[in-house]
Amino acid sequence: MTGDPLLRIESIHLAFGGVKALRGVSLEVRRGEIFSIIGPNGAGKTVCLNCINGLYHPQQGRILFEGRDLAGLRPSRRAALGISRTFQKIELFSGMTVLDNIRLGRHLHMRTGLLAGTVYLGKTAREELAHREFIEREIIDFLEMTHLRDRVVGMLPYGLQKRVELARALALNPRLLLLDEPMAGLNLEEVEDMARFIIDINEEERWRVTCLLVEHDMGVVMDISHRVAVLNFGEKIAEGTPAEVQADPQVHQAYLGEEEDVYTSRR
User: Fold this and answer.
1) Burial code of 54-77, b = ≥16 C-beta within 10 A, e = fewer?
2) What angle do CA 166, 170, 176 make, to 5 degrees?
3) Of 238, 240, 198, 236, which Cα lies nearest the Cα of 217?
4) Which residues of 25-53 are buried (b: 16+ CB within 10 A; e: fewer)?
5) Whether the model pTM is above 0.85
6) What's 49's DSSP letter?
7) pLDDT tens-digit profile of 65-105?
8) What is the pLDDT of residues 182-202, one digit of tens each?
9) What secondary structure does DSSP assign to 78-143, as a single string?
């Protein structure tokens, strides 16, 4: 990690009618880290991600990415700046193949104009081949999906669909990857695979992607995160290293009623 901020959230507020989903939340995600947001159900974790990628717009506060204020930018524009994400509920085209779903995540990098794109020759053909090589060599091989490339997504098990969604997010070649509960619904082996992929995406020289993770699996969070923030009823109540967060009495109080081993490491 270089330590300089890639993403800065400054006192954002968001309310839906009389329900205050976020109340003055401030966060700073440093370049090169895995930063996790945890909290009980309804704490505002996914709402926070939706504000970052532009699905929601805070009524107060600012969100800055590489020093640029994101106010007024649509999700597609934020994606073009290098912010990619996966979703809590899988958002794939179930009738399309794995390869075609991943290709959709690459469309923002296409530079050929509409007219040139109607003729598959010259520059258009070279660009298409370059993107295809990137997808197949850098993403499909990396995520161990070579045998799945031509399978229809809707016919795949849930855990593999989660992997396809991660692949599509990587096709954008992001600088910031937002991961909304990537472990949800996975069995133990799939969770371990997903955690390994996230670590590699963050650490390997080819990727070096900063990751912002929302997750309920505390074993995974405490194992792979550099820093953790805790939300409760739309407010940040703690932030620090995994060890510091585990020792915070406010965090224990927020999780009152959860299993006693909520922070147990998988290692």
Assistant:
1) bebebeebebbbeeeebeebeeee
2) 105
3) 198
4) bebbbbbbbbbbbbbbeebbbbbbbbbbb
5) yes
6) H
7) 999 999 999 999 999 999 999 998 888 998 999 998 998 87
8) 999 999 999 999 999 999 999
9) HHHHTEEE--SS----TTSBHHHHHHHTTGGG----HHHHTS-SHHHHHHHHHHHHIIIIIIITTT
Distance CA 67, CA 81 (A): 12
Rg of the chain over all Cα atoms, to the nearest angstrom: 19
The position carrying tokens 């649509």 is: 74
As a three-state string, the secondary structure of 156-181 is CCHHHHHHHHHHHHHHCCCCEEEEEC
Q: What mean pLDDT, rounded, does the chain reach?
A: 88
Q: Any idea what the Cα angle at residue 42 is, between residues 37 and 193, rounded to 5°?
A: 45
How many angstroms separate the CA atoms of 1 and 3, rounded?
A: 5
Q: What are phi and psi of 42, to 5 degrees?
A: 80, 10
Measured CA to CA in angstroms, residue 173 lies from 106, 133, 205, 212 at distances of 8, 14, 13, 15
Q: Rounded to an integer, what distance in angstroms lies between the CA atom of residue 65 and that of residue 7?
A: 5
Name every residue whose Cβ is closer than 8 Å to that of residue 24 and which is 6 or more positions away in sequence: 11, 12, 13, 61, 235, 236
Q: How far apart are CA 178 and CA 50, in angstroms?
A: 10
Question: What whole-number distance in Å separates Cα of residue 142 and Cα of residue 173?
Answer: 13
- Name the nearest CA neighbour of 45 among 195, 215, 258: 215
Give me the sheet containing 68-69, strands edge to edge: 19-30, 5-16, 60-65, 68-69
Integer Cα distance of 115 and 38 in angstroms:
47
Rounded distance between C-alpha atoms, residue 259 and residue 174, angstroms: 36
| Mean pLDDT of the region 252-261 | 62
> How far is it, in rounded angstroms, from Cα 14 to Cα 40?
18
